[in-house]
Amino acid sequence: MILSSEAREVVETSMKINKVSESEREEIEKVIAAMPNDRVLLYKNVVSNPIGDLPRYSVHIRIQHMLTFVTFLTLAFTGLPIAFFDHFWAEPINSLIGGVDVSRVVHRTLASVMIFSMIYHIFTITAGTIVKIMQGRFEIRRSIIPLFKDLRDFKQDLEYFAGIRTERPEMDKFMYKQKVHYFAAAFGNFVMIISGSSFLFPEFWAAVLPVEIAAHFQEMMRLSHPHEALLALLVVAFWHWYNVHLAPGRFPMQWTFLTGKITREHQMEEHFLEYLRNLVELPEERDYLIDLLTARELEATGVDVVDAEASPEGATP
Amino acid sequence: MLYQKIKICIVLLFLLGAGYSDITLAFEDDEACLLCHKYPKMGRVTEEGVQRSYYVMPHVFGKTVHRNVPCTDCHSYIKQLPHKPVKVGVQCDSECHAIKNPATGKNFSHKPIYDKYIKSTHGRKKVTKGHDRDKPYCVTCHTNPIYNPNEDEPPKRIVDRCVVCHEDNKFVINWYKHTSRRIREVKRSSEEIVALCSNCHGDRRLVERHMKAAKLEGRELGRKYPYAVESYNESFHGKVTRYGFKKAANCLDCHADYDNYYLSVHYIRPSRDPESPVSAERKLKTCQRCHVYADKNYAAIDPHPTSNPEDNPFRHYAELIYGWVGDIVLAIFVGLAIFETIGRRRDGVVWKLRKGSSWWRKSKRNRDRVV
Questions:
Q1: A132 FRET partner, CA 20 to 30 A, in A31, B225, B244, B246?
Q2: How many angstroms separate the CA atoms of B271 and B277, rounded?
């Protein structure tokens, strides 16, 4: 496979960061050259372990995800019956929890856990980033920070879904959907904490804000808390659960949130640039890929190389 | 014929028996009112076509707070038996002749509270005309409460102790019931208070009737008058009160004075009156009853806002935008999920990863998994 300039840059940076030896560099180049030019053939032919093959999330991220999703669902379960009191399901759910005397205590306790989870997350990623910067290992494109590339990826992905392109864009460790989701969750978390605190400490917010906006702020927060909760729940229910549970190839669930590992085919399909880094960082992955390509007679041929030069972005000729 | 007569007799006996069986008087009926009023069928249909019952249940009335008051103390217009049709009925500011106020020695009366009530925004005469008829009279809120309904008689060990000095068993039982009821918290629960106020303020037709009348007469009504109940129900106080939470404010917690609560609930004034606890002048102090750190900024917060554009345009548009954003986001995400599924299925993905791959289907592009 002849890498696109972007992928080539990722591989070069990764080799530089990992200080690979000359012999390793040769080995990596050999694997890359042997990869079929059509990436689709690559991820269609690998063998994946459902519980994951390649490292993706640290144990901290997994703990944070667990804390956030357990608290989020329970907070929604205890809060929504109060906010949407006039719906038929509100009264039975509230009674099931043990009434408002119980649910308010549960809600506030879990809110504290959710805030803890947020602080824990901010601390972990900040400290992790600082360490990476100091070690010279930080790569912005490998982080969750949105880049213009994500817009391009989104456009190209839509083209692939529509059948215009033959393959998906070369996406990084965090693809556009994950970035949108992450910042939506972060924003939602922030709104829920601020608005929740305005329910719990209305006097504080009235005292610190100027009189012209104190009342509007309180009203806005009273609206925001249930609306943001509902929006978050719907996004989680309809989109996140689709992506990790219901999407083809992911059903009935991805194990990444428990094992921290991603399946090989998924990494190749949606995070190809990260897979290239895996090839640099994991010698056993290189061995696996060479064995597979040889066994399945998928190694790149001269014809492939010519084709690749004609359409390096994978666009339909 | 004889058969017909027997049948009528049986029916009459049955009707009499239904109401008359086993009546034991729990109170003195010196005036013999029960002679007629003990019959369950006692009543009439008024000229307006309303069915009225005049039945007095002796076994229930005998346990009420008024059981020691002779009927004619309140029904003072009755001078002879059988009496003439009643036109006005009982007025609650009348004086009792049989009961003395032990503190003052004067005849007992509800007049002090009535005088306060008549000056309140709810004040009305018993017989009145026009829209005042929608206002609550004493009996709208106060039925004749029953003494400790779950406790027929005081515990024997208490009665036995008291009669040692007070000698009279009946006196002891009466005193016990009187004091134990008053020692208990006799205030309505928050939910009951909200339900009581909502009875009229939540009646859309009544509210509209009054809005119309006020407009015609050029009278001012409270800004929140049209949506008092719905906005309270949607407020945080309303939502948790609805679920039986006791510490959140109900209607009277803010609209009545905290000091001398039982008198002040009868003297509710509109918020534009400086005497009202929710007037601009007194609002902050009212908030501070619960929200001790409240300041003037806090008092500016609307405790039960609505999303009505006339009442609160800010909230109206904020809610509208929130609704739209929610719908759009949902539509985009659901649409994207469907689009993505179709796109990837076309390329041969199956739902479940099995035997190491999710790409077992035949693709439309002729580049399938090597099997």
A1: A31
A2: 7
Whether residue A154 is contained in a domain is answered as no
Examine residue A157 and state whether it is found in any structural domain, yes or no.
no
Is B319 within the bounds of a domain? no
Q: Is residue A44 part of a domain?
A: yes
B98 pLDDT band (50/70/90 cuts)? confident
Query: Whole domain around residue A117: which residue ranges?
Result: 57-138
- Closest Cβ opposite residue A82 in set B239, B336, B353: B239
Query: Which of B94, B42, B46 lies closest to B70, judged by CA?
Result: B94
A250 and A264 in one domain? no
- Interchain contact, A249 vs B350, CB within 8 Å: yes
Mean pLDDT value of segment B295-303: 93
With contacts defined as CB-CB under 8 Å, which chain A residues touch B289?
A: none
Averaged pLDDT score across all residues of chain A = 93
A224: distance to nearest CA of chain B, Å? 8
- Integer Cα distance of B215 and B180 in angstroms: 49
Which of residues B72, B97, B122 is at a domain's end? B97
pLDDT bucket at B2, cuts 50 / 70 / 90: low
Burial (CB count <10 Å: 0-12, 13-18, 19+), residue B365: middle
**Inside any domain, residue B4:** no
For residue B319, which residues of chain A lie inside 8 Å, CB to CB? 223, 227
Spell out which residues of chain A touch residue B365, defining contact as CB-CB under 8 Å. 40, 166
- Please say which residue of A138, A162, A187 terminates a domain: A138
Give B148's pLDDT tier (boundaries 50, 70, 90).
Answer: low
Q: Report the gap between the CA of A5 and the closest CA in chain B (Å).
A: 25
Contacts of B292 in chain A (CB under 8 A): 203
Q: What interface predicted TM-score (ipTM) does this complex get?
A: 0.90
- Do residues A128 and A66 both lie within one domain? yes
Residue A26 neighbours by CB under 8 Å, 6+ apart: none
Q: Mark yes or no for CB contact B236/A40 under 8 Å.
A: no
Is position A37 within any domain?
Answer: yes
Q: Measure the CA–CA gap between B88 and B329, rounded to whole angstroms.
A: 64
Kindly determine whether residue A206 and residue B298, on different chains, have CB atoms separated by under 8 Å: yes
Question: Of the residues A138, A153, A187, which one is the last residue of a structural domain?
Answer: A138
> How many angstroms away from the CA of A247 is the closest CA of chain B?
7
Residue from the list A40, A238, A265 with its beta carbon closest to the beta carbon of B347: A40
Do B254 and B286 touch, CB atoms closer than 8 A? Answer: yes
The dihedral sign for the CA sequence A242, A246, A247, A252: positive
For residue B128, give both structure tokens: 């009145």
Q: Is A215 on the interface with B (CB under 8 A)?
A: yes
Interface test with B, best of A203, A270, A291 (most B CBs within 10 A): A203
pTM: 0.83
In the listed set B79, B97, B115, which residue is the last one of a domain according to the structure?
A: B97
- Residue span of the structural domain in which B80 resides: 18-97
